[in-house]
Structure formats: structure tokens, C-alpha cells
Design brief:
Elements: H1 2-35, H2 39-59
Helix pairs in contact: 1-2
Length: 69
């Protein structure tokens, strides 16, 4: 059963990660076109960096993932 949970977690993490990652270049390009400069896109990148840092601290806590029953 633990191998099944590991596969499911890996699939979810990779699928979600690639979905979010593919939106980055598109979003930056749209912000650059809308603002006609790089100030807004760089500010957006910094905002995403802060959000990812907060998420990373939460994800790196020492805890166990329990298998669904």
C-alpha cells in the first residue's frame, strides 16, 4: 500500500507542478505586453517567489503522510 500512496503523490505533485510552470512564461509575456515594460512582470515574479517560499516552509515540515483507509 505505501508504494501506491507514493505513486499517487508523485503523480499529483508533478502534474500540478508542470501545469503551474507552463503558465509562467505566458503570464509574464501578457504582463509585459500590457504594461509595456518589465517593472510589473518583475514585481509579479517577486510576489510568486514570496508565495513559493511560504509554501516551501510548510511543505518541508517533518511529518508523515498516512495512507487513506
Amino acid at each position: 500500500m505505501p508504494a501506491v500512496v507514493g505513486r499517487r503523490l508523485s503523480t499529483m505533485a508533478q502534474g500540478t507542478g508542470y501545469l503551474i510552470a507552463c503558465l509562467g512564461p505566458l503570464g509574464l509575456g501578457l504582463l509585459h505586453s500590457a504594461s509595456e515594460g518589465w517593472s510589473l512582470p518583475v514585481a509579479g515574479l517577486l510576489a510568486v517567489l514570496v508565495a513559493q517560499t511560504v509554501a516551501a516552509f510548510g511543505a518541508s515540515r517533518d511529518r508523515h503522510v498516512l495512507a487513506p483507509s
